[in-house]
Amino acid sequence: MLVAAAVCPCPPLLVPEVAAGAAPELDAARDACLDAVGVLAASRPDLLVVVGPGETLPGPGGILSVGPFPPGTRGTFRGVGVDLEVTLGQTSDAAFTPGRPLPQSLTVGAWLLDRARWTGAPVEGLALPATAAAEDCAAAGEVLARRAERVALLVMGDGSACRTVKAPGYLDERAAGFDARATEALGSADLDAIAALDATLAHELQAAGRAPWQLLAGAARDAGLAGRLLYGDAPYGVGYIVAAWS
Question: Which of 154, 179, 204, 230 has the greatest count of CB atoms below 10 A from its CB?
Answer without folding.
Answer: 154
